[in-house]
Amino acid sequence: MLRWPVAPMLAAPVDEVPEGPDVVHEPKWDGWRAIAFRDSDGVYLQSRAGRNLSTYFPDITRAIRESIPAGAVLDGELVVWERGRTNFAQLQRRVTAGRALLRLARDSPAHLVAFDLLADAGGEVTLELPLSQRRARLGRLLAGAPTQLTLTPQTADMRQVSEWLTHWTVAAGIEGVVSKRLSGRYEPGRRGWWKYRTQITTEAIAGGVTGNLRSPDTVLLGRFDRRGKLRYTGRTHPLNAGQREELGTMLSPLRAARRRGAPAAHPWPQPLPPAWSGQLDRPEPLPYVQVEPTVVVEIEADVAFEHQRWRHRVRYARLRPDMPVYDVPLLLGEEEGYFGET
After folding, report:
1. Which segments within the chain are labelled E, that is strand?
2. For the chain, which terminal residue's Cβ has fewer other Cβ atoms within 10 angstroms, N or C?
3. pLDDT tens per residue across span 225-273
4. Percentage helix, strand, coil, to 5, in the chain?
5. CA angle, corner 59, sides to 53 and 65, nearest 5?
6. Which long-range contacts (CB under 8 A, 24 or more apart) does 134-137 make?
7. pTM (predicted TM-score)
8. Which fold has domain 199-327?
9. What class does CATH assign to 10-197?
């Protein structure tokens, strides 16, 4: 019988969706990876990093306990649906809900979208079986389960994949697709699958940098809201040498205020709060260099955009010296759409 922790099998990033006679594809859900262990004593939910998530998802542990036989181990993604779309922020609220956890679980129930079976009923380990057989067993196991436990869609049809990437990324909040070999076994900790993230190309304003002004390491990005205030929207991956040199020649230090030598006003705090910079694993303020918000850069980002920020770091593509900052799409409210007119 499998016992926790088990390192989940992982996916390596790719620039295009792989094809082949033995390859199938599944939506890449925007949630928390979880391995669910159903033993005779109850249910244990393990995060990707090996942490215990059971306490935060009493609705899921109850559903598994009531419908999944002892010994089974499922791999999947925890998601919360809101108006037909995944809501990552609702997952994060589970950790900080405290006494309100049960009410939150009732009002915004979680779902486990299962995509693999590590052990079958009775504890029969299935790691060495091909994916096609693990998938068939998983389907039978979930046949009578409640809707909170569901089997992820799977297809070999590239037209269906195109439909997911074109429409589901906006309508349902998926991040892309994960591709797997039907003949592949489950290899804990190994990147034996492939993941393709849906990307957008758009523009943002440089409001600060880490490192130094002439050779920045990363760029802190912003967009104006409807009131004309520059809002922080995310941070880039580290720049390469050419990008640091290119950008460093264009940035200007924040101008000193004219009245009585007062410090210049910048719309973002210094240092950047941990909640802004997304450092959930290392919650420390981020020191940075504030710059005049006059430089526009082109970026490539995935579709994980919540609370008016890109949740993952974005890729710096190039400078846009031809574009005034006021031509950058406005930061709209979530009910209006995430990316303005891009």
Report:
1. 10-13, 23-28, 32-39, 42-47, 73-82, 85-86, 110-119, 149-151, 176-181, 191-197, 199-212, 215-224, 230-235, 289-302, 305-306, 309-310, 315-319
2. C
3. 988 899 999 999 999 999 999 999 999 988 754 444 445 578 999 999 8
4. 20, 35, 40
5. 85
6. 134/186
7. 0.72
8. OB fold (Dihydrolipoamide Acetyltransferase, E2P) (2.40.50)
9. alpha beta
Residue 215 token pair: 């050779």
Domain ranges of the chain: 10-197, 199-327
Pairing, β 110-119 against β 73-82: antiparallel
DSSP strand pairing (309-310 vs 315-319): unpaired
> What is the dihedral angle through the alpha carbons of 336, 339, 341, 342, rounded to the nearest 10 degrees?
-160
Could you tell me which residues are beta bridge partners of residue 300? Answer: 201, 315
The token pair at 171 is 């309508």
Instruction: Report helix, strand or coil for 255.
Output: coil
Q: Checking DSSP bridges between strand 149-151 and strand 10-13, what pairing results, if any?
A: unpaired
What are the C-alpha distances in Å from 170 to residues 29, 166, 175, 328, 329? 12, 8, 9, 21, 18
